Amino acid sequence: MTETRTTAAHGGAIGMHGIKKWFGNFQAVDDVTLDIRSNEFFTLLGPSGCGKTTLLRMIAGFELPTEGQVLLDGVDISSLLPNQRPVNTVFQNYALFPHLTVAENIGFGLKMLGKPRSEIDSVVKDMLKLVHLEGRGGNPVTQLSGGQQQRVALARALAPRPKVLLLDEPLSALDLKLRKSMQMELKRLQTETGITFVFVTHDQEEALTMSDRIAVMSTGTVRQVGSPWDIYDRPAERFVADFIGETNFLEAEVVAVSGDRARVRLSSGAEIPATFPADVTPGGKVTVVIRPEHAQVGTPSPASVLRGIIREIVYLGTDTHFHIRLEDGTTFTVRQQNARSGSCGFSKDDAVGISLSDDVAQILRD
Ligand SMILES: Nc1ncnc2c1ncn2[C@@H]1O[C@H](COP(=O)(O)OP(=O)(O)OP(=O)(O)O)[C@@H](O)[C@H]1O
Ligand SMILES: [Mg+2]
């Protein structure tokens, strides 16, 4: 790789401040403020219709905010046309030119910018290498597989060395295996080029795998911004906890508070430590979230913080899920890794105790 060709110019930090977007009388984005750092792999994650594409289109300049500012490296770019912004977009459907070769597709943007032939050839060569398509430049683009076409689309978007690359669900048309390898590929491209990537997906696993930071969105608002670990292990509210992975919600009462720690009493009477993101006071009723893989099933014992009856055992190869009816009638899921082959040792209708790993309970914001 020739560093000077494929490395972005410095910068690429995006500020979105107080962004609101109305389509007629429908509000698609409601007061979003986000600061995306230079050279970051940043993901907008949320269910269909929550406003991800709309936010991306406002960074690209295809849509204008009804209110608020879009900044690039601290400069307001709201009045710039899409082609005046050092930003490129990769779409889900690739949008390649079917009548052009791989090389012509990759060089297209540079040609439009009026770059000399020799420079285009040189950048295309670097790009083919970057996306592992050396020797394929002369092929008609239609002869490539889906994954290869997606890499051409990436190379084409990277060729003019944008400061920011916007990617709107670029992997959703690929099969699972290809998607997994393209996730690694994208992460590598982002690290090697140092370009700020803003990636859109509704797939939580994809977001956790690739991102430096994630913004979880719901109905036009950003609910939480953080590292994959923050989002998964320290969800601030029920929507985030529920959207990212499987979760148990338990009602509890705060017994004591000290620093960022609390002791909470579960419906079983057991008291456990819990962390919390917002103010809680002793006596307060709270919801506590515990991930299924942070709990263990065993025979009932003094170490059990919860007790119940196994309603269902689901064997998933790598691990086993136990769906347990607790004494208070709610259901709790435990996910245990199948470290050994053979039976898990429990059957449906067994009475079991549930113990927890240390420091796994998190109190949610109301
Ligand atoms: N041009 C438009 N005119 C009217 N409504 C629009 C327009 N573009 C988007 N919307 C609406 O704004 C909301 C957000 O749309 P957006 O495309 O940003 O969602 P999304 O999060 O990208 O969803 P998906 O995951 O399905 O792509 C939706 O309710 C959509 O119908
Ligand atoms: Mg979308």
Automatic annotation (TrEMBL):
InterPro entries: AAA+_ATPase, ABC_SmlMolc_Importer, ABC_transporter-like_ATP-bd, ABC_transporter-like_CS, Mo/tungstate-bd_C_term_dom, NA-bd_OB-fold, P-loop_NTPase, PotA-like. The keyword tRNA processing does not apply. Its EC number is 7.6.2.11. Keywords: ATP-binding, Cell membrane, Membrane, Nucleotide-binding, Translocase, Transport. It is an enzyme of class 7 (translocase). It catalyses: ATP + H2O + polyamine-[polyamine-binding protein]Side 1 = ADP + phosphate + polyamineSide 2 + [polyamine-binding protein]Side 1. Residues 14-244 form the ABC transporter domain. One of its GO terms (cellular component) is ATP-binding cassette (ABC) transporter complex. GO terms for molecular function: ABC-type putrescine transporter activity; ATP binding; ATP hydrolysis activity. Belongs to the ABC transporter superfamily. Spermidine/putrescine importer (TC 3.A.1.11.1) family. The complex is composed of two ATP-binding proteins (PotA), two transmembrane proteins (PotB and PotC) and a solute-binding protein (PotD). Part of the ABC transporter complex PotABCD involved in spermidine/putrescine import. Responsible for energy coupling to the transport system. PANTHER family: SPERMIDINE/PUTRESCINE IMPORT ATP-BINDING PROTEIN POTA, SPERMIDINE_PUTRESCINE IMPORT ATP-BINDING PROTEIN POTA. This is Spermidine/putrescine import ATP-binding protein PotA. It comes from Shinella granuli.
